[in-house]
């Protein structure tokens, strides 16, 4: 596969800041945005609506293959619709994340979503947010960032984020859920969460969002993908 359209991959574990950085990059550069996690979340959500268990491989695969999902840009970010119904908020819960992580271990599901993800690569460029963007979906991408942070920092960030949405979850429970999700994402056979061989790792534990953004933009500038800024 040749990647003619420039793609910046932002991979890493849950809560590392991928979505935040990807959204900021997409807005600043006017590049398209692929939130691949949303696709897995929609599959998990569609299973729940259909009464299919997340580990029922034939049922989940059929749902992934026939997924009627649409992404649209809004002032608040990217809106997600499943069969015409807005599921933007519904898929963002902790439960939605667990469902996504469960269906994401199924190789047939990953295969079913591959072409759909690659279709997002359109001029002038794509910011691809996920777990296997650099290692599997866009292996020829000119810039692959592996964004990480300690599990504790990620749990604290997630707690603040959930509280802002009116969901209250204790810190130990969130830390446990993050560690469980990390283990499942990293140890699965199909496209595990690992940095691509040519990825640049950024640890955001002690970095502000602006500092992370500036590092990514510097990496992009050093590859001639964007103009160098004075930041
Ligand atoms: N460097 C940072 N410092 C402090 N807070 C951050 C930083 N980066 C992101 N955050 C905050 O952490 C929370 C999680 O960030 P975000 O949703 O971008 O993570 P993510 O990696 O996309 O997670 P997931 O893969 O589960 O969707 C958000 O509330 C965000 O504002
Ligand atoms: N490329 C990807 C993206 C996501 N997943 C799985 O989906 C879960 C939810 O992802 P979020 O980024 O929305 O939190 C995640 O835990 C992964 O299990 C994936 O496998 N590949």
TrEMBL record:
GO molecular function terms attached to this record: ATP binding; CMP kinase activity; dCMP kinase activity
Pfam families named in the record: Cytidylate_kin
Keyword annotations of the record: ATP-binding, Cytoplasm, Kinase, Nucleotide-binding, Transferase
All residue ranges annotated as the Cytidylate kinase domain in the record: 8-220
UniProt-listed GO biological process terms: nucleobase-containing small molecule interconversion; pyrimidine nucleotide metabolic process
Subcellular location: Cytoplasm
Catalytic activity: dCMP + ATP = dCDP + ADP; CMP + ATP = CDP + ADP
Claim: NADP is one of the keywords in the record: no
E.C. no: 2.7.4.25
Enzyme class label: transferase
GO cellular component term, pick one: cytosol
Ligand binding (ATP): 12-20
Keyword Transcription applies: no
PANTHER family: CYTIDYLATE KINASE, CYTIDYLATE KINASE/PANTOATE-BETA-ALANINE LIGASE
HAMAP family attached to this UniProt entry: Cytidyl_kinase_type1
Sequence similarity: Belongs to the cytidylate kinase family. Type 1 subfamily.
Protein name, UniProt field: Cytidylate kinase
Organism of this sequence: Luminiphilus syltensis NOR5-1B
Lineage: Bacteria, Pseudomonadati, Pseudomonadota, Gammaproteobacteria, Cellvibrionales
């Amino acid at each position: 596969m040749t990647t003619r359209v420039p793609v910046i991959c932002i991979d890493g574990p849950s809560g590392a800041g991928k979505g935040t950085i990807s959204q900021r990059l997409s807005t600043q550069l006017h590049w398209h945005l692929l939130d691949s996690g949303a696709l897995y979340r929609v599959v998990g959500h569609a299973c729940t609506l259909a009464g299919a268990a997340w580990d029922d491989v034939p049922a989940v695969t059929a749902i992934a293959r026939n997924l009627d999902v649409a992404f649209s840009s809004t002032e608040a970010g990217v809106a997600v619709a499943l069969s015409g119904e807005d599921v933007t908020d519904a898929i963002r819960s902790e439960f939605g994340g667990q469902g996504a992580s469960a269906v994401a271990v199924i190789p047939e599901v990953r295969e079913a979503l591959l072409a759909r993800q690659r279709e997002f690569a359109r001029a002038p460029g794509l910011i691809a947010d996920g777990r296997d963007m650099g290692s599997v979906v866009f292996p020829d991408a000119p810039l692959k960032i592996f964004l990480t942070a300690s599990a504790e920092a990620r749990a604290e960030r997630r707690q603040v984020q959930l509280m802002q949405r009116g969901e209250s979850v204790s810190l130990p429970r969130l830390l446990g859920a993050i560690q469980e999700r990390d283990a499942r994402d990293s140890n699965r056979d199909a496209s595990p969460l690992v940095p691509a061989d040519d990825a640049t790792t950024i640890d955001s534990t002690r970095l502000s969002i602006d500092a992370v953004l500036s590092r990514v933009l510097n990496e992009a500038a050093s590859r001639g993908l964007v103009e160098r800024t004075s930041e």
